[in-house]
Amino acid sequence: MKKNKYLFLTISFVVYNIIILIVSDKYSIPLIFFLPMLLYAAFMIKSMKRSGKKNDNSSNMFPEESNETVSSTTYFEKKKTEEPKIQIGFDDVAGLEEIKDDLMDVIDFLNNEDKYKSMDAKVPRGILLYGPPGTGKTLIAKAIAGEAKATFIYSSGSEFVEKYVGVGAKRVRMIFERARKEAPSIIFIDEIDALGAKRNSESNNEKDQTLNQLLIELDGFNNTSNVIVVAATNRMDLLDEALLRPGRFDRKIYVGNPNYYSRLKILEVHTKNKPLDKKVLLKDIATKTHGFSGAQLANIANEAALKAIKDKSKKINSENFEFAIEKVAAGLEIRHSTVSEKEKRIVAYHEAGHAVAAKILNIDKVQKISIIPRDKALGYVLKFPTEDKYLYTKKELCDKVAVLLAGRASEEVFLGEVSTGASNDIKESTNIVYEIICSYGMGKNTQNTCIDERVFKYYLDSIKDEVADMIKETYERALHTIRENKQVVEKVAEYLIKNEIMNADQLDELMEDTKKKKALV
């Protein structure tokens, strides 16, 4: 199409010049002849340049790689302008004192490298932070960079995963080259399991090359590189063994959910600029939030502030925090539910069974009972341990199962039939029983034996029978507990049907009154 266009222009130009020669006089020929010729020459040169550029691209053996190289360069240049020096330090990281102490030598090395050279001491070049989500792994990495006044280069594992072979490896090289140029620096790779998953025969060739390049870069550091690699993951079990060996990620630090003292410090950090009512006791909130992550605690503080604003209050009070804990733990309250009176009655007796069994068997502290639907649950019992607990006996685990099954037991005792409302309780109780038998070695036929996936098939029939027997036995205990405390359960249920909510003090008072009446009789 374009060749025909140029041929037509050339012929037209020649014809034009012949006509000019015939009709023009000898003085006007140079002016009339050369002006169109110059315009035509300029047009042809411009067209050839455009064509040349397109031909250069089309003749490239790997056009995708060329384009990707440009995009990768601009991508990392853009990231460079977006990453100023980090202003966060260890003072901004509440709790996690042991982890901060463990990382002080890394920070000292970045600031005083010569001191370590003189002693021929080698500081870990790779630090792997692993643990559940929301526990502060990214915050710790930023705090290291802030304390060391180092350049902080953030990336996620998914940024290196590409469909074109060689692109991911090139990105790894580029980020490490930049880190060396801007040393002292910290490379932080979030969700490294996306990049460093175990290699196998079915794995992607591009992914393997990217991981190989990362392994080479980690090995390639010398004593003068002054670059630290920090990585974070929620799934350490997925990582390739080559990535975890000493010399690459030398130091592996578990970042778990905070204990009571850490929760208290985290709450203090997240409420230091918030106007709190004098009656608010952060110690009580820290006790009630057992098992919550740092991110959840920060969310609770923020939700309490939002609730105070919504209530047009000048200060955040205890009720705001109770609302926030409940929202984070149980979900969003459904105000205009379409639950029928029959279902409401079933839910009331179900939750009353859970609450009374938890009080009788002394499993956790019941904070609140509600039959107001939240998310998918039609009712719930909000309970937390009174203290941090890390070890459980077999009896305590069986008591937990009994409390979970007490809801269904209450339905059977008072309503004469069971409903589907216990599905989640059954699932959770079955998981605990399987752990008792398979993981903790507390089963009758599997005593002191860990049954994992390698030998599970050999014990399958035995485990199935023992799980069924243990569930049956525990359910009988739950039924016995409900029948023994039938009067209390009925009063709690009737109170819930009428008022929908019961707090811990009201439950204690109701149970005490029932005990006194029993004693008088």
Summary, kept brief:
By secondary structure, the chain is α/β, with parallel strands linked by helices.
CATH topology label of the largest domain:
Methane Monooxygenase Hydroxylase, Chain G, domain 1
Distance between the terminal alpha carbons, to the nearest Å?
Answer: 107 Å
When the domains are counted, the total is 4
Based on secondary structure, the structural category is: alpha/beta
Given as residue ranges, the uncertain stretches (5+ residues, pLDDT < 50) are 52-82
Based on CA inertia axes, which overall geometry fits? elongated
Strand content: 5-15%
Query: Could you tell me the radius of gyration in angstroms?
Result: 35 Å
Q: Which percent range fits the helix content?
A: 55-70%
Rounded mean pLDDT score: 81
What is the CATH class name of the largest domain?
A: Mainly Alpha
Main sheet: strand order: 2-3-4-1-5
* CATH homologous superfamily designation of the largest domain: Peptidase M41
Number of strands: 8
Number of helices: 19
Report the sheet with the most strands, covering strand number, pairing sense and barrel closure. Answer: 5 strands, parallel
Run of helices and strands: HHHHHEHEHEHEHEHHHHHEEHHHHEH
